[in-house]
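chain below, 391 aa
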Amino acid sequence: MKRIAILLSLSLLAGCAGMQPPAAAPVPLFADARFAPPSEKVGAEELFTLSPAMRSYLNSQAFTRQLRQHGQRQGLVSALYSKSDLKLEYESARTRTAAETFADRSGNCLSLVIMTAAFAKELGMPVRFRSVDVDSTWSRTAGLYLASAHVNISIGSRRESGMRSTDQDDMLLVDFIPQDEALRIRARELEEDEIVALYMNNRAAEMLVQDRIDDAYWWARAAVAKRPGMVPALNTLAVIYERHGDAALAEQTYRTALQREPENMTVMRNLQPVLARLGKGDEAKTLAQRIASIEPFPPYYHFDKGMVALRAGDYGRARELFEREVKRAPYNDEFRFWLGVSHLKLGDISHAREQIAKAVDTSTRQEMRQVYSAKLAHLRRVGAATGTLIR
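prediction:
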């Protein structure tokens, strides 16, 4: 892919950490007349709505058995995420409503959090959403760099006589990383409006990936209107303006985001080429120097150099560069896969298999898991033919 200086804050793993309280609605940032009407309904009115199929599941024998065996809270989690019942798959291509996640039996972490909340609320259990302070995970799709952050959800006991606990220790944490690790990580409680805005921001980013600029605008606009001052949504809106050819609006929106978070690297990286395009060369140069002093190696820096080395046949150098990228982004399946390819080119089938197996495990997209799995199956056949142990 050609690298372009556009980075999105996408909540694929759930949400965005470090968001600030809402500010006044930045109405001047909206430019409705410049965009065609949306081709689909834009909004989140049915985000937590249970479908008839979900209600039927709530009344099923399997669900009732889980509640009876494990109690309400643990029973709900067991029913939703046991390998033998719904068999949910992690899949990040699209952020879904609660009903869509249930129907498709798949979703990214934000979708799974939304579905869990929908069931819990239907059962009368209080829920809390939390933004988890972990490093963003980068991916690259259709020329866009996507930063995924993380949220989780905790569930309280069913309300009795209007009483509920306000102690986080009395809440059952539901996370999609190991429970012990989730408990140790610093987190901040989110309001439901923030979850809704994150959902709409995700939809905007997903529209951008499909090059549906008009639809992306309306989703991003809805996210900003829902939670004014949310930096990921402002950044997405600015990216849309930039791709639409509205550089001045993009600059204004990036600057609004930086007023909220002056050190946000994603926004700064996006703003810098816009300034240069608008003829503000000195300011663009100063911002580039500031960015380089804070983060000299942008996302995919070592990876892109590794791909150049791989194409040139310098497999040892490629492996070294891919290893550097894996070290700072261990859950990026693309980095793992190409590290495996470099091992394979060097004749190291065992390590190639190890890295490609990790690519399968860490991939959030079903189609890529299939690609990696096919390569892994090939390596196993090669191993069997040569007598090499390939687990």
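The chain is about 55% helix and 10% strand. The longest helix spans residues 366-386.
thats it, cya
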